[in-house]
Amino acid sequence: MEIHHINVENGDATMILIHDTAANTFPASVLIDAGMSNSLAFLSPYFKNCFGDSMPVAHFKYMILTHHHTDHYNGFKSLGDSTFIQVDTIIDVGGYKLDSAYPAIAPPDSIGTALERGGGGKIFKKVYLKALEKAYGKGLLKSRSNVITSFPRDIGKIITIGTVNSIPVTLTCVAAAGYTYTGIRDSLTHDSSKQNSPNDYSLGFVLRYGEFRYFTSGDLGGYNGSNFIDQETTLAGGLDTLLHQLSYSFDSTATRDSITGHICAFKVSHHGSDHSSNPVFMKIRPAVAIVSAGNQVKWALPNPAFQQRLDSTWKPLSSRADSTRPFGVSDRGLYITNLYNFPKKRGTERDSCLKYAVQLFAGRTDTQLQYGNDYDTAGMATGAMTGSSKDPRCKDSYILTVEPRDITKQSTFYLYMTNYWKGVIMRLLGAYECHRNERD
């Protein structure tokens, strides 16, 4: 099972694959979001290199749009291009109506009409809905999900992506349309309205494969503000219920701590903004955090305040002393697609995103830090965390692969870097032994 965090410079694009490595085929795949750039810039070349010439059109069992922001849906612009992708089922937060000729992907409930689910303006209609109509008309998009269609009813619903060695790989919907999972078939709504950011309507999922757990949730927030809401605090309790079995330290010679609600790895919400990944939510005790960030000056992400909060709250379940850490195994890993220092704004420290990350996480024996644009002006990887290239060819992506051995009892996984432009298929960066479901 592989999770590809595709470097699209700005926005998110995550691909989940079940990979038959013996036959080099992909029995099942999911694409979550598509970045801000035109698909031809990043996604199409990535798919071509990943799937090969034998699969000129990438085929996805599910395509998920987490919410209505351009840095998440703009890459779907070429959805109706027969050389790009084919999709069996689309899952999104709804809140829109298509022409009557396309009833299969019109949301069946009226909640979206009342709240607009965080936006559905001219750009959304011109880009995303137009792409859906075009793809549906050409048979490149088959249907809207008949499992996750209405909220809060479908919070807690599970879809099965496929199986690996007879072990199911599933996605559980834990956040959508302003609702968050709090318990078994239970959810909590917040005081949301048309004034709320589309971020508050983000779809969130927990991926499970045996003892491996992964969390992804678009731009979900963890602090209350003028146009966004704290959903992470509620969700932290919901994950305790969902993942109620105790997780124990992988290495018995290290701390014998235990915890419920543990997540092995997560795609950091909202690209590492100053109002995501709050201290309550970080009780999930992840081993790996992956941030999809870019070069937008007005965003300047990942924010230094987020980085400092991550450093102070990030305590992996399997934390080891140096003397007991197996060779090549890290306790925690931070992988960021792009890191820059930005111009100052109103006296803030937003100019220091790259500086802070290096200062907080580089050179530590317990932490693996890597970012995907560490290239000099000549396009050569520096390896010294001094580069910040904007060249599209100097964009590393990160692949998380899960070890199927003993997956029903323990979680072991790896992080690889890939850059097809540079001829790098998969280069191992970090190995993680995350937790067990019972004591030694």
From TrEMBL:
Transmembrane segments: none annotated. It comes from Chitinophaga hostae. This is Metallo-beta-lactamase domain-containing protein.
